[in-house]
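step=encode ok
step=design start
structure_in=
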């Protein structure tokens, strides 16, 4: 049978990327986007994917009662969302199950996994928009699923309306910028002081471009616009009309252009609450907490309400912002620049802390985990954005005798397959290890 001919499949479960999973005649997995467990579908195989085949959904032969009407007109074309076709309750349960499965793979089959904290629509405060110039006109949006093509969007149901309101004015600006030739990106952060814009362009802004950007900032209430080469790392402020700031744990911090923020205020609040709840109930007056991969201090400043914090971060801009905030917070946070992949903390260094909090990048913390597993700290609180990396790192803790005391799934990337989590590890025997 030709791979292009329609075939029928029974969907048994969802894969890690949110695709419906079926099996071909040889028992190999078939990945079908936008299909749900229990559905029988018509699909066309499109090519190899991992150890199986990718397929295109052609039609539903039997529909799941959990299927929902996607609320966004761009769903299916825009690659930003993958799960709008699923009802809220089973979707949240699937997110919770992903964390339970990751911990089970690490040896914690009975981990106490809580209910997923799901953030509502219209709350994301960070957007990385792809830009293209097509026939002279700017295209602004997100990449199509599995493609480099950019889907031109006029709205987004996950973003804060204050960011969506900038779409059309930004298109108008881009139309006139000579520094925007063929492609670029626009990274928007919604700060307490207003939207902050970092433009990555494939040309160099001239005097007219800079004037246009300053006018755009003034009219649309942006205190700052920065520009950087499309493939460069160093940005330049081309318009600065006022200070930029975001409060972290009540402390105002001045972020660099394009700085990493937690995606939503609600998601950040859920993560902070789970981290604080995971600390030892009683901390000695001189107790210290280590915050690894601290970024701007999203966790450092809330933790400083419980004990003095040493915050470790490798990115120079982030350390500078963190230190600026720390100087306003009475010295309870010490910002320390250190690349933990090249120079992880030693067991002796870790033993000086009553608790260690880590929020590593997507790849996890493979270089830091061996020493952390052997340390004598009372608590390890792992903030994860990748269940696969979490499972690998937690396996080392399991082998060293650490128990999972609490696990909280946090879904701040609504309608996507992404999952964040806060997992609290201690030496207490909460239950037998698997």
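sequence_out=
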């Amino acid at each position: 049978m030709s791979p292009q001919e329609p075939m029928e499949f029974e969907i048994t479960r969802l894969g890690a990327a949110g695709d419906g999973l079926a099996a071909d005649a040889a028992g190999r997995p078939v990945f079908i986007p936008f299909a749900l467990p229990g559905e029988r579908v018509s699909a066309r195989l499109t090519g190899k994917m991992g150890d199986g085949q990718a397929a295109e959904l052609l039609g539903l032969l039997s529909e799941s009662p959990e299927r929902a009407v996607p609320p966004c007109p761009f769903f299916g074309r825009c690659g930003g969302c993958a799960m709008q076709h699923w009802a809220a309750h089973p979707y949240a349960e699937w997110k919770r199950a992903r964390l339970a499965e990751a911990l089970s793979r690490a040896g914690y089959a009975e981990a106490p996994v809580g209910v997923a904290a799901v953030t509502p629509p219209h709350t994301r405060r960070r957007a990385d928009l792809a830009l293209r110039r097509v026939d002279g006109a700017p295209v602004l949006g997100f990449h199509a699923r599995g493609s480099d093509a950019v889907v031109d969007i006029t709205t987004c149901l996950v973003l804060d309306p204050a960011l969506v309101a900038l779409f059309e004015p930004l298109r108008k600006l881009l139309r006139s910028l000579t520094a925007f030739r063929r492609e670029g990106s626009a990274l928007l952060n919604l700060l307490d002081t207003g939207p902050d814009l970092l433009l990555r362009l494939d040309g160099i802004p001239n005097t007219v471009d800079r004037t246009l950007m300053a006018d755009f900032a003034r009219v649309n209430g942006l205190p700052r616009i920065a520009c950087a080469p499309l493939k460069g790392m160093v940005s330049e402020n081309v318009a600065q009309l006022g200070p930029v700031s975001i409060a972290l744990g009540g402390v105002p911090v001045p972020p660099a252009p394009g700085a990493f923020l937690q995606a939503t205020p609600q998601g950040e609040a859920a993560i902070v609450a789970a981290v604080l709840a995971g600390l030892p109930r009683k901390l000695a007056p001189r107790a210290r907490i280590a915050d690894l991969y601290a970024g701007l201090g999203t966790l450092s400043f809330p933790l400083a309400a419980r004990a003095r914090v040493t915050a470790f971060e490798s990115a120079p801009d982030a350390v500078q912002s963190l230190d600026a905030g720390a100087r306003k917070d009475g010295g309870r946070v010490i910002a320390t620049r250190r690349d933990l992949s090249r120079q992880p903390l030693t067991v002796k260094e870790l033993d000086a802390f009553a608790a260690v909090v880590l929020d590593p990048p997507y790849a996890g913390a493979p270089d830091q985990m061996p020493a952390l597993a052997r340390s004598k700290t009372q608590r390890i609180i792992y903030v994860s954005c990748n269940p696969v990396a979490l499972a690998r790192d937690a396996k080392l803790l399991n082998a060293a005798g650490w128990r999972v005391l609490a696990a909280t799934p946090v879904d701040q990337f609504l309608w996507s397959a992404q999952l964040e989590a806060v997992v609290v590890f201690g030496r207490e025997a909460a239950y037998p290890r698997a």
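step=design ok
step=annotate ok -> Residues 88-120+261-426 form a domain with the Rossmann fold fold (CATH 3.40.50.150).
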